[in-house]
Amino acid sequence: MSQKQEEENPSEETGEEKQDKQEKEGILPERAEEAKLKAKYPSLGQKPGGSDFLMKRLQKGQKYFDSGDYNMAKAKMKNKQLPSAGPDKNLVTGDHIPTPQDLPQRKSSLVTSKLAGGQVE
Amino acid sequence: MFLCVFFPGAGGGNDIQWCFSQVKGAVDDDVAEADIISTVEFNHSGELLATGDKGGRVVIFQQEQENKIQSHSRGEYNVYSTFQSHEPEFDYLKSLEIEEKINKIRWLPQKNAAQFLLSTNDKTIKLWKISERDKRPEGYNLKEEDGRYRDPTTVTTLRVPVFRPMDLMVEASPRRIFANAHTYHINSISINSDYETYLSADDLRINLWHLEITDRSFNIVDIKPANMEELTEVITAAEFHPNSCNTFVYSSSKGTIRLCDMRASALCDRHSKLFEEPEDPSNRSFFSEIISSISDVKFSHSGRYMMTRDYLSVKIWDLNMENRPVETYQVHEYLRSKLCSLYENDCIFDKFECCWNGSDSVVMTGSYNNFFRMFDRNTKRDITLEASRENNKPRTVLKPRKVCASGKRKKDEISVDSLDFNKKILHTAWHPKENIIAVATTNNLYIFQDKVN
């Protein structure tokens, strides 16, 4: 359905039932979602969606390895596991020391693409 | 989405009835990372269809010549050539891993017997020549047929080698490597209508290249701030105008599009036109900027319009009007009330592409659950279809799909909560002349055609 200028939210009959009056006091679905997010991550976003994402995007692919840090961390935690990478929404800093176990296998694909093999249906 | 889309069996008027044609790729659900399709592109005639994947490989399919006897379908696409375009690299100086994933493929128009395409990963663009060999010289004097050298003392007569037919061999060779010009990650390449130059765009800069020259490129856009703390937006896509060789556009993460004229100055940091739809500040939320980020921009074939894709919609802009789009199509508005979880699982950052049909009358884009959407600009009708192996009998018409946002789910509808957000269609392509479309799911390529009676 093409829209001309304003966006319409015609069919939102979800929990946020105030769609009809969205221009006035209704809680927009987006705002309700924002509230949910802030409830889960209170420290999130003083800046709405701005620099954090961009910096993360620009830094994609950056891998840091400091052998000094690594060896000291290993020495400190003789009997414990080294901290492993977990899901991290923020920049790659902090306590995580990359270890060889964390780094993904990097080798080029010597195998032919499956798109090029197999049955043609 | 409340509209009803039902196409009667006979398909009245201009309604296209889409049928499954082919599917390529592995059936199993366990997808190797390397097999994830990252780009799909038809060449200018539509005879060739190229795909790139995360493993750095390119596969090219060729449409077989139509079988005149069996005129119920157009030629099928079969593998023509496949090669490893890019390899993984590690930049030791910057401690940077460079993925081999093919971000974009763009075809050059055909000038001679060979085909040429540009393929790019995050850092390096390559010009590939794909050529056919269907004859080989035989009858050398000093070599046997298997390549071993003959003892010259045994040669008593001379003969002239002749070309004899051989099985078709398609060879791909890299003819140019355009490297070391991008500090950030390349998201777009676009060939100029002069067919001599092309642009490459990364997050902060756009460079202009000559296809013959690899050791030099001109920087034509630079939005890197002096102080990186001041960074507020990045370049998300760029494209040359299809007819005006001096004009290109680039889109941003803030939902704006800038049109630049290379005649105005060498460095096009000041746009000629700025396309931006004003936003009602009272509607603003944490998500507003993220979902306004433009993931793709494509000129119409006519060059009069351009289309942009942001997270929830497709917008058509008239190049003569900067202050708002002329058409807006909602792709999956029902996701607006799911933005919190889509942010948590990173889906909100998915970059969907969009494409025009050959006559600029219909536009297409992908969605989740292996759904894809088409919007007819003339009739204002739209349709949701699914790329699935369940419908894989050739010439069976695809059944339209419908997502139920909430409330009572009708039979055959799918509720928003049942959608599979891991099944995303990011890349689609439309044949430049016919109603043939290529739709990439995570690791499979589907080809659909309109029903030919």
Strand segment count of chain B: 32
Largest interface: A-B, 55 and 79 residues
Portion in strands of chain A: under 5%
**Radius of gyration of chain B over all CA atoms, rounded:** 24 Å
What is the helix fraction of residues of chain A, given as a range? Answer: 10-25%
Oligomer: heterodimer
Total DSSP helices of chain A: 3
Family (chain A): Belongs to the endosulfine family.
Main location (chain A): cytoplasm
GO cellular component, one term (chain A): cytoplasm
GO molecular function, one term (chain A): protein phosphatase inhibitor activity
Descriptive report:
The complex is a heterodimer of chains A (121) and B (453). Chain A is mainly alpha-helical. Helix content of chain A is 25%, strand content 2%. The longest helix of chain A is centred in the N-terminal third of the chain and has 12 residues. Chain A is flat. The N terminus of chain A is likely disordered. By secondary structure, chain B is mostly beta strands. Chain B contains two helices and 32 strands. In chain B, the strands form nine sheets. A four-stranded antiparallel beta sheet of chain B has the order 1-32-31-30, with no helix packed on it. Chain B has a four-stranded antiparallel beta sheet with strand order 2-3-4-5, with no helix packed on it. A four-stranded antiparallel beta sheet of chain B has the order 8-9-10-11, with no helix packed on it. Chain B is globular and about 95 Å long. At the A-B interface, strand 1, helix 1 and helix 2 of A face strand 1, strand 5, strand 7, helix 1 and strand 23 of B. Chain A: InterPro entries: Endosulphine. Chain A: GO terms for molecular function: protein phosphatase inhibitor activity. Chain A: This is Alpha-endosulfine.
